[in-house]
Amino acid sequence: MANDDTINEVDATGLRYKSKANGSPFGIAGASSGTMSCYKCGHHKPRSFGTYKKIADRRLFICGDCQPSTK
Q1: What's the chain's Rg over C-alpha atoms?
Q2: Which of 5, 17, 21, 40 could cross-link 66 (Cys pair, CB 3.0–4.6 Å)?
Q3: Which DSSP string do the residues of 17-63 spell out, in sequence order?
Q4: Does residue 2 sit within a domain?
C-alpha cells in the first residue's frame, strides 16, 4: 500500500518526515457504504457484510467471517 507520491524530507536533526495527501484510504466517514473494523479480527469490512453486537453496553461491529453460525 505504498504511495509513489510520498515526499521524504530529512530535518536538520536527522529525523525523516513524510508528507502524504490528506484523507483516509477507507472513504468518507459515516457513509453507509463505508467500512468498519471488526472487533474480533481487526480487518476492515463493508458495513453490509457484518452486524453489531452489544458487549459491555457498547455496540461493536463484527464481520460475517467472525460471527458464529446460527445452525
Answers
A1: 18
A2: 40
A3: EEE--SS-TT-STT-TT-EEE-TTT--EEEGGGEEEEEETTEEEEEE
A4: no
Residue 68 included in any domain: no
The residue range of the domain holding 43 is 7-63
What pTM, to 2 d.p., does this model score?
0.51
For 23-39, what is each residue's pLDDT tens digit? 666 656 555 567 888 99
CA dihedral 42, 46, 48, 54 (to 10 degrees): 20
Percent of the chain with pLDDT over 90: 11
